[in-house]
Every structure is written in structure tokens, then in C-alpha cells.
């Protein structure tokens, strides 16, 4: 299997595995082996695996020459320096990473990352040729109050204000309603489609050409059952998968949910 040119401009759906803080050398090897067995005949879905930093060398070894790309779950906003515990873009590139998740709610809430801080990380990835997967979303209280578009709009507009709409070229946005992550309760297809349309319209207001080619994923308790409905929406360009990415059988079923894919 040769590794494809996986880019945001590809017409195929994109499914990203986010292992979060899970894994061991033995477990990862078995999981990746099972991934590759089940994913090799997919036709309409591209796959990326984002792993904890210590396992970048391992997945580079396991995935080089396959049809699966890999990346990290965070990045420093600095090039280098006295920032203990941080990992730079150049370090990620040393391990062949092409993708990096930016601003996941589990980080932005636990580590109090501001929209500006996330925007700086986003552009650091861009400057080094990495493809950022920018996570945006609202809490349950914000959705119930009807301000979800205002919240998501602010997250996008911070990048637009600082770096322009063209910053979203060769980038990915993942809509992750915070109230759905890890709860087992996903947004409905109607809710997801409406927010995906809003995200594209927000970027289009700054740069229409960039917005037209922008890949927008859905994340938040994606599983084999809801993936069938979600990934069949033309507005939804793929999925960012957390818990179910740790189970090869479930993850493969999610990747197969695009109708043109071969069922193994």
C-alpha cells in the first residue's frame, strides 16, 4: 500500500482518530495492525491517526508506506525556547506528522486556552506546513441559550481578525459540540448540518475561495450507528473520532459509513 496525498482539498471524506491520553507500545501495535487490515480497501475515506507525543515514532514506523497518515494532539505556539513540557512544530515534523489537533475543548477548558492562544497555535502549524484541525464548539448552556453560533463564530473570527480568512486554506475545522464529547449523545444530523453551514458561511464572508474548499468535520460521540447518518450529509466532510477510535472494529465501521466504500 502506498501512502496517498491526503490533503484538505481532496474530495474524499476524512476520518481522524484521536486517541487522547490512551495507549501503550503493545496496545498501539495491535490497534494499528487491525486498522490496516480493515482500512486497506476503503475507496472514499481518508484516515488520519492523532496520537500522544511519546507514540509518534512508533506510528511513524507502523504507518509509513500505508494509506493512513498520522499527527499529534497539540502544538506549542512557540518555535523553541525555555518552555518546559511544550512540543514544537519542528519536533512534530521530525516524526513525519502532517496533522495536528488545535484547540480541542478538553485542552481549552482544562488549560484555560484563550481563542487568541489557539489562533497562534493554528498559525504556528501553518507556518511549518502542518495541517491544523481546529476544534470549535459550544457548551450545553450556550446551546440552550441559543448563542451557539455567536460562540463558534467568535472562535473562527479570532483567526480571521488576526491572520485573515485565507489562513483557513489547507486547514480543517472540526465542529465538536462540547456537550456531546464523551457523553454518548451526539448532535443530530440537522444540528450538525446547520452548524457546518454556519462555519462555512463565516469563513466565506472573509474569503469565499478558501471557504469553498474547506473541510469541516463533525466530532462528538461519533459511533458506527450515528456515523451512517452524519457522514451521508454533503455538508459534513468527515469525522473526528475519540472513544470509538480505540476499538478497531468500531473505528473501521465508522470509516465504512461513507456509502461508496467497500464493506469488508
Number of DSSP strand runs? 8
**What's the rounded overall pLDDT mean?**
93
Structural class by SSE content: alpha/beta
How many H/I helical runs?
Answer: 11
User: What is the string of helix and strand elements?
Assistant: EHEHEHEHHEHHEHHEHEH
Q: What is the gyration radius calculated from CA atoms?
A: 17 Å
Strand order of the largest sheet: 1-2-3-4-5-6-7-8
- Principal-axes geometry comes out as globular
Overview of this protein structure:
Helix content is 41%, strand content 15%. With 264 residues, the protein is an alpha/beta fold. It has an eight-stranded parallel β-barrel with strand order 1-2-3-4-5-6-7-8, surrounded by five helices. 47% of the residues are buried.
Supply the key terms.
264 residues; alpha/beta; eight-stranded parallel beta barrel; 8 strands; 41% helix
Q: Would you kindly provide a brief summary of this structure?
A:
This protein has helices spanning 25-39, 56-63, 89-94, 105-110, 115-127, 140-144, 148-163, 189-206, 208-213, 224-230, 248-255; strands spanning 13-18, 45-50, 68-72, 99-102, 131-136, 172-175, 215-219, 238-241. With 264 residues, the protein is an alpha/beta fold.
Amino acid at each position: 500500500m502506498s501512502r496517498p496525498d491526503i490533503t484538505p482539498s481532496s474530495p474524499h471524506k476524512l476520518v481522524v482518530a484521536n486517541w487522547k491520553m490512551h495507549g501503550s507500545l503493545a496496545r498501539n501495535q495491535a490497534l494499528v495492525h487491525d486498522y490496516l487490515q480493515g482500512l486497506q480497501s476503503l475507496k472514499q475515506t481518508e484516515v488520519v491517526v492523532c496520537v500522544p507525543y511519546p507514540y509518534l515514532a512508533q506510528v511513524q514506523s507502523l504507518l509509513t508506506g500505508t494509506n493512513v497518515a498520522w499527527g499529534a494532539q497539540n502544538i506549542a505556539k512557540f518555535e523553541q525556547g525555555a518552555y518546559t513540557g511544550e512540543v514544537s512544530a519542528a519536533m512534530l515534523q521530525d516524526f513525519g506528522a502532517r496533522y495536528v489537533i488545535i484547540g480541542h475543548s478538553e485542552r481549552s477548558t482544562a488549560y484555560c486556552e484563550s481563542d487568541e492562544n489557539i489562533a497562534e497555535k493554528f498559525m504556528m502549524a501553518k507556518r511549518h506546513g502542518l495541517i491544523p484541525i481546529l476544534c470549535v464548539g459550544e457548551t450545553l448552556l450556550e446551546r440552550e441559550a441559543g448563542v451557539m453560533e455567536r460562540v463558534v463564530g467568535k472562535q473562527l473570527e479570532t483567526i480571521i481578525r488576526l491572520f485573515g480568512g485565507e489562513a483557513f486554506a489547507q486547514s480543517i475545522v472540526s465542529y465538536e459540540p462540547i456537550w456531546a464529547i464523551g457523553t454518548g449523545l451526539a448532535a443530530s444530523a440537522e444540528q450538525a448540518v446547520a452548524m457546518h453551514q454556519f462555519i462555512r458561511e463565516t469563513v466565506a464572508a472573509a474569503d469565499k475561495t478558501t471557504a469553498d474548499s474547506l473541510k469541516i468535520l463533525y466530532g462528538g460521540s461519533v459511533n458506527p450507528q450515528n456515523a451512517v447518518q452524519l457522514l451521508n450529509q454533503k455538508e459534513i466532510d468527515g469525522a473526528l473520532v475519540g472513544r470509538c477510535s480505540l476499538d478497531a472494529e468500531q473505528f473501521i465501521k465508522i470509516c465504512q459509513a461513507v456509502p461508496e466504500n467497500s464493506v469488508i
